[in-house]
Structures are given as C-alpha cells and as structure tokens.
Design brief:
heterodimer, A: alpha/beta, six-stranded mixed sheet, four-stranded antiparallel sheet, globular, B: mainly alpha, two-stranded antiparallel ribbon, two-stranded antiparallel sheet, 26 helices
Chain lengths: 266, 632
C-alpha cells in the first residue's frame, strides 16, 4: 500500500527581486497505487513545480506530501523520474545508463546484467546495449530513460513532458509503450503533458490545473487508457466521446490563457 | 663514397621528393575541392575533416623553405659553388677600392662628390663672412683667402694639372688591368694550378664541415682562374690608391695658404677670424691628398675596369645564376683570410648540419656538458622504492626502533627493517631508468602537471559546486594566476632551490590555476536535469560528483590539460634557462652564451617535436575519452 497523498500543498518562491510568487496553493489529492494520472494546464500553472515537489527536488512551503507511510523529504529511488530531454549521461553506453541506479547501490553484477537485458527488451532496445547514447534518436533516448527509471523498481513514476520533444509518429509509439508498461508493471504513473490528446489517452485520471496561483481546477476520470490497452490509440482518438472531452478541456485552457492575457494587459 | 657526398645525395633526393610531394598533394587537393563543390556549402565544419594531403604539403613546405633558405639545397646540388664564389669574392674584394672611385656601383664619381662638397663648404664660409660676426674691415681682409682656396679647388680639375709621372702611373695601372683581363678571358691557369687544386681538394674540409664555413683554396679550374687573378688585382688596387693628383705647384699653393691662415689665426683675437681660419684649414686638409682629377684623366682606368668587369661576369657563367637563385638573401663574402656565408645561409642552420648535430649529441657518450640528451642508466630498485615510499610508514609500525647494546651490536627488529625499505636502504637488482636532458625536462613537466591535476581538479569541482569554496579560493587563485610564471620564478627558485623542486613547484602553480578554472567551468556547466536524474536513481553526493559532475566536466578538464602542457613547456624552458644544470632549456642557454646556432636550433626542434608529441597524445586521449563532446 503506497498511495501518494498531497495534503494542502503550498509553494511560494521569492524571486531575486524580492517578489513573492505563489506557484501552488492548497493542492490536495490522493493517488492510489497503480493509478495512471495525467496533469494538464496552461504554462505557469505549477505542473512542473508539483512534480519536482513529489520527486523531492523541492520542499513545499506548506502542507504535507506522503508516499505510503513516508513523508517525502528529498529525492529517492522509490520515485523514479523521466525528463523531457531524457537527461541521459552521454558519456555512458545504453546499458551503463540503464544500470546506473543499480551500480550506485553496488548491486550484484550478474543480476544487474540480466535485468538490463530484460528492460532493454521491454522498451524495444535489444541489441543496443553497447551503443553510446549520443548516437540514438530522440525516441530511443526516451526509451533508455524509461528503462533506466524502471529498472530501479520505483513505486511511483514521474514523467515531466516525456514525449514533448518527439515527432508525432514516434510519440504515438511511445504512448503505446507507456500504456503497455503501466499495464504490465502495475506501477503508479504521473505524467505531465502539454498535449490534451496525450493527457486524455495516458490518464485514468486527469487533473486540469489553473494558474496564478497554481491550483487543481478540475478532475476527470477517463476510460481511454484502459481502452488504449486493447485498441489502436488512433481509433480511440477518433472516438466521439474522446473528441468531445478534448474540445471541452481545450476551451477551458483557452479561457484560462485568455484570462492571463487579460490580467497581464490591464 | 664520402660522408659529404652521401649527405648531398640524401638532401638532394629529399628536396626533389618533397617538391614532388608538394605538387602532387596540391593537385590532389584541387581535384578533391572540384569534386566536392556540388555537395558542400561554405561554413560546413565537415569540410575541415580529413585532408592528410594538406598535412603532407604543409610539412613539405616547411622543410623546403628550410632547405632552401639555409642553402642546404644549394650545397647538395652545387657543392662546388661556395668555393668558386669564394674565389669570385676574392676578386671582387681586390677590385673594389678601384671601382669605388668610379660611378660603377655609385651614381657619382668620387672626384665629383669631393668637389661638390668642398664648393658647398666654401659657399657656406662665404655666407658666414656676411654675418654680423665680422666687421667690414675683417671682411675685406679675409676675402682674398677665399678666392685663393677657390683657385686651388679649380686648379685640381683643370686640364693639364696632372703631371707626367702621374699620367704614366695611370696608363700603367690601366695596362696591368687590361693584361689581367686578357688572362681571365683566355682562361690561362698559372703553372702548377691543377696540382694545387687536387692538393686543396684533399687538404680542405668541405663546405660547412668545419668552423671555417667555406674552404678558401680553389678546388676547381674555374675557381683557380679567379684565384689567380685576385692577388695581382689586389696589388694593382694598392698601386692605384697611391696615384694622387698632387703636382708641385698644387702642393706649394696649399702649403702657403695653410701657413698664412695659421699665422692669421695666431695673430688675431677676433673669434670670427679664428673660426674662419679653422674652417678653411679643415677644407684644405680634405683636398690636399689630391683625390680629384681633371675630368677624363682617369678614363683609361675606368674603361679597363669596365671591360674587366664584363669579362669577369662572363667567366662566372652559371655561378651568377646559382648565387642568385640557389642562395637566396645573401652571398659568399671573402675576408682577409677566409670566406664565409652572408645572409640566411649564415644564421639559419642547415637541416643536414642540424640533424648531424642532433645525432652527435644523441650519442650518450657525447651528450651535452657530460649528460646525454636521452638515454638510460642502471639504477638500484631500492633507490626508487625509497623515493616513492614515505619514510613515516616505519613510524606507524608499533614498537621502538632498536638501540645498540652494550656489546656494540644492533639487533634489527621489524620496525627497523620497514624503515630500511622505506629509505631504500636494502640490496636490490639494478633496473634501467631513463635519463638525460630531454627526460629531465619531460619529467619536470609531467610532475608539475600531475600535481596540478591532482589538486586542481578536485578544488575546481568543489568551487563549481560550493558558494563558499568559490568565494574563498577565488581571490587567492585569481591574484597569483595573472602574474606571469616567469615573474614568480626567481622567488620560487630561491625558496625551493634551483634543482627539480623549484621547477616542479613553478610548473605546479601554472598547471594548478588552469586546472582549477577548467574543472570549475566544467562543474558549473552540468545540466540540472542530469543531477536530478542521478538523485532520483539513488546516487549519493559523492557518487554524483564522481559519476555525473566529473565525467560531465571531462571536456573542459582535458582542454585544460592540453593548455597546461603548452604553458608548462614554455615556463619550464625559461626556468631552466634561469638556473639548473640539466634540461633542454639549460642546453639552449649554454648554446646561446656560446652563440652555437646549430645547438640552439637543435633544442628548438626538440621542443617543437616534444610539444607536437604531447599535443598528439592529448588529441588522441580527447578523441578516445570524450567522443560525445558537443553531442549530449
């Protein structure tokens, strides 16, 4: 039982000029084990701040974050993170990147090698173990990042716009891969994205966040992730319910953006 | 075949080979460019990759320029040329005093120059006389002297002023020159010349084989011909210099005027009159040697010299061309007893000589100042163990060091045995270790560099990660770093001694600052997302420094090492020049004091090659360790 519980999280930054920015205000939610959550919102709504708080890179100025029984206080292996640009270590090969976490723990070498093989196969990179990562394409780099995170067997996987830098075709393939991994491992996954379609497809639950101050605006429970496990994601995207929800959320975000523009110009 | 002949053959073949390589590489390069024109745009860095043929042509160009301007190519292709040009130079030196009286190499004849100058002087003195320094009475009194001086000047140039004796001397000199011209034209060698040539070939060292650069005695028939003319010509020159246009009346007039002026000066108290007398006196002294002749009086000699010159030039034949083309920026000059190279052939040592000097010095038995350039020697292993193992290790062993007993014997215990090993005080086999000037220099650079990296990189990384370290250490490093290492040298060498310690510390200071700055730049440039990723993967602080920040800083660190090596070399050579008894800089300093250009050149080439070697090693290391640079 390792649910993620956010209890009235507040986050304020002080800029070097002395201005106080409220990045998050009173954010509360519970993410049950094995859930797939996507978070959507206009720029500056605090999505990435929320993720960094959960990852432990930042500490909240108010409220409490717990994973299982443990208060989140700094980064940890139980919360794996996948970054937008992969953040791979380019001086290492693919398998050295993947087993980085295990090497840091001084894990058994044979066991590690076996696990690396296994995960490379799951993400579709068998045979690329000795390739230097700088020779890989963007999609392949993200597969390495996924494997590197998953090999540590984290309770919670955090993804910060993981597919943002990929082309449309690669992106669809990767979306299927994320769904497949979610299904096969039963991990709790939290994905931050800019793309409404991606959020709808990769979210059992979907948070739409609003800016200034960053807060949860609306929550959806969605069937598309489950469907996506059996069907071609492209068929789901043509589904009328999918299109309807997409339009609803798009106009919601559109209005938020308009509002920001309005307050900014007044 | 003699060693000199072999050298000529090798250098000649090398020169031609290099020339052909240069041409063919250029043609290849041009063709490559033509083919690539369609698929590469300007500014594409890929176009700078590869290009071994340009490396070949670059090296060939350097060597060709060196071979050419040091006249090594000339010596290889025309080994006789220097000796023959030496004979020509002897003739030129002999004939020069005569030629300088006529407008051959100058624009005006000597007599014209003298008259123009002295007429000018007279005009000036006349003008002075008009000034307020003189009273009217004085002017009237002095004017006649001026008129008489003018008359004397005019009389020298007057037709018929030359007496018969002098006229005969002029004709005689002209005739003797014509005789020599005839000998030269006919190519008549004096008796026994052929035997002398063979003798000279056997007796004299070749061109550049001894401290006497160019052999003096002629070793060819052409040279012997010029040589045979040179001595009589020198004699004629001496006789010519005795010919003066001093007839009895001229001498009398000058002496009379001189005496009157002296009396005038002695009997007067007027400053103006005294100055006038002095100026006039000087003027007369300049003309009384009779160097001015009537126009046309010396024409026979001028004509003889002109025809001699024509024949002489003609007889040089191909030599003139060799001198102009194969011996650029200079020629062979003849002194009183020896001939020498003048120009780039003198100060630019020839590659073959330089190589020969290098080979000579490379012989460990010869070396330089009793120390080989680079060799090995047998050293007991114990000495190295004693150097590497710190002595305090023995102190850490429990127990006491032994003391001698009442019987005068010392009982060794374990602690004492460890001390013996730590101090290198035990029997061991000899092992060969490198030694020599080059090795000493390399070792100093490597030691300074190693210490600089060892201490500089961690501090640099620390400074890149910690506000405290950055603020605390920055002022110290930034205060000592901008000071040129050579400004530190006298102080450091005084404190640490002129042996290796001082030099290594100086190099350490240089390398340390560079390494700190590069490691710090590298650490500062680490992407935050990579550090976040490492944190999420469970890495500890130390593991993050070791596995993320250090490898991420490698490009900057390696660039820093590459720069450090270069700066360390420069500093080391200068430090070795200041003090010490071994090292390449020491060799160069001694050679400099002795003006031994060849050894200076050898040290420069050694330094260049070692620098190139180090840089190639670093390039290889960079290529192997950070192929990912710029691709992350």
């Amino acid at each position: 039982m390792s649910d993620l519980i956010a209890d009235a999280i507040d986050m304020t930054f002080t800029t070097p000029n002395g201005d106080v920015v409220r990045a998050l205000k009173n954010v509360s939610f519970t993410l049950k084990e094995g859930e797939l959550l996507s978070v959507l919102g206009p720029s500056g709504c605090g999505k990435t701040t929320l993720l960094n708080l959960i990852a432990g890179f930042l500490r909240p100025t108010g409220g409490l974050l717990t994973l299982g029984d443990q208060e989140i206080d700094g980064p940890g292996v139980e919360r794996g993170m996948v970054f937008q640009q992969g953040a791979l270590f380019e001086w290492l090969t693919v398998s050295e990147n993947v087993d980085f976490g295990l090497r840091m723990k001084n894990a058994n070498k044979k066991e590690t090698a076996r696990k690396v093989e296994e995960w490379l196969e799951i993400v579709g990179l068998q045979g690329f173990g000795d390739t230097p990562t700088y020779q890989l394409s963007g999609g392949m780099q993200q597969r390495v990042a996924l494997a590197r995170c998953l090999i540590n067997d984290p309770d919670l996987i955090l993804m910060d716009e993981p597919l943002g830098a990929l082309d449309a075709l690669t992106r669809e393939k990767m979306q299927s891969l994320v769904l497949k991994i979610w299904k096969e491992t039963g991990k709790t996954i939290m994905i931050i994205t800019h793309s409404v379609e991606e959020a709808l497809l990769l979210g059992e639950r979907l948070f739409v966040m609003a800016p200034r101050p960053g807060r949860l605006h609306k929550e959806y429970s969605l069937p598309f992730a489950e469907l996506g496990l059996e069907q071609d994601p492209r068929d789901i995207k043509n589904n009328s319910e999918f299109a309807q929800t997409r339009e609803e959320i798009l106009s919601m975000i559109w209005n938020m953006e308009e509002e920001i523009m309005g307050t900014a110009s007044s | 075949m003699s060693a000199v002949g072999l050298r000529g053959l090798v250098i000649g073949a090398l020169f031609i080979g290099l020339f052909l390589a240069l041409i063919s590489c250029w043609i290849y390069g041009r063709r490559l460019i033509k083919n690539e024109k369609t698929d590469a745009v300007f500014g594409n860095p890929v176009k700078a990759l590869g290009g071994w043929h340009w490396i070949v042509s670059g090296v060939a160009t350097i060597l060709l320029v060196w071979l050419y301007f040091s006249w090594d190519a000339a010596r290889a292709f025309f080994p006789q040329a220097a000796n023959e040009l030496c004979q020509v130079a002897k003739v030129n030196t002999a004939v020069h005093p005569m030629r300088s009286s006529f407008p051959f190499d100058t624009r005006l004849p000597k007599g014209t120059i003298i008259l123009a100058r002295e007429n000018g002087q007279l005009a000036r003195i006349t003008a002075d006389l008009g000034s307020a320094d003189y009273s009217d009475q004085e002017r009237a009194e002095l004017q006649p002297y001026l008129d008489r001086a003018q008359t004397i000047l005019t009389s020298m140039a007057a037709e018929g002023s030359v007496d018969n004796e002098t006229l005969q001397a002029i004709t005689g000199v002209s005739q003797r020159i014509d005789d020599l011209t005839a000998i030269l034209e006919a190519g008549e060698l004096p008796e026994g010349a052929d035997a002398a040539i063979i003798q000279a070939r056997d007796d004299q060292p070749g061109w550049g084989d001894s401290s006497q650069e160019v052999p003096v005695d002629p070793t060819s028939r052409r040279g012997a011909l010029f040589d045979s003319v040179a001595a009589p010509m020198a004699e004629i020159s001496r006789d010519f210099s005795k010919i003066r246009n001093t007839n009895a009346k001229f001498v009398e007039d000058v002496a009379a005027l001189d005496a009157e002026l002296k009396a005038l000066s002695d009997g007067s108290e007027s400053a103006g009159v005294i100055a006038f007398a002095r100026d006039m006196n000087k003027l007369l002294k300049r003309v009384d040697n009779g160097a001015v002749f009537p126009p046309g009086a010396l024409d026979p000699i001028e004509a003889s010299l002109a025809s001699f010159h024509t024949v002489q030039q003609d007889k040089q034949g191909s030599l003139k061309l060799i001198d102009a083309i194969a011996m650029p920026s200079g020629t062979i000059l003849a002194g009183n007893t020896a001939c020498s190279e003048q120009g780039s052939g003198r100060w630019l040592p020839k590659p073959s000589d330089t190589f020969a000097t290098l080979v000579r010095l490379s012989d460990p038995e010869v070396g330089y100042k009793g120390f080989p350039l680079l060799w090995y020697k047998q050293k007991p292993l114990a000495e190295m163990v004693g150097f590497l193992v710190p002595d305090f290790i023995a102190d850490l062993i429990p127990g006491e060091y032994p003391r001698h007993g009442a019987n005068g014997l010392v009982e060794q215990n374990f602690k004492a045995k460890v001390l013996a090993i730590a101090t290198g005080n035990f029997n061991s086999p000899n092992v060969p270790v490198p030694t020599g000037h080059v090795w000493d220099s390399v070792l100093r650079v490597l030691a300074g560099l190693f210490l600089g990296i060892l201490l500089g990189v961690p501090l640099g990384l620390f400074m890149g990660l910690s506000r405290f370290a950055k603020g605390f250490f920055d002022p110290m490093i930034e205060l000592y770093r901008p000071v040129p290492p050579l400004a530190w040298a006298p102080l450091i060498l005084t404190i640490f001694g002129i042996q290796d310690d001082g030099k290594i510390f100086l190099l350490f200071m240089v390398a340390f600052a560079i390494m700190v700055i590069s490691a710090r730049t590298g650490a500062t440039g680490t992407q935050l997302s990579k550090i976040h990723a490492a944190h999420s993967l469970g890495a500890s602080r130390w593991q993050i420094v070791r596995s993320v920040i250090l490898p991420n800083s490698l490009p900057e660190i390696l660039t820093g090492i590459r720069i450090s090596i270069g700066v360390c070399w420069g500093t080391l050579v200068a430090a070795e020049m200041l003090a010490g008894t071994t090292g390449i800089g020491f060799v160069e300093n001694v050679a400099r004091k002795q003006s031994d250009y060849e050894i200076i050149w050898v040290t420069i080439i050694l330094l260049g090659l070692l620098g190139l070697l180090f840089d190639l090693i670093m390039r290889f290391v960079i290529h192997k360790t950070i192929p990912w640079r710029g691709k992350g």
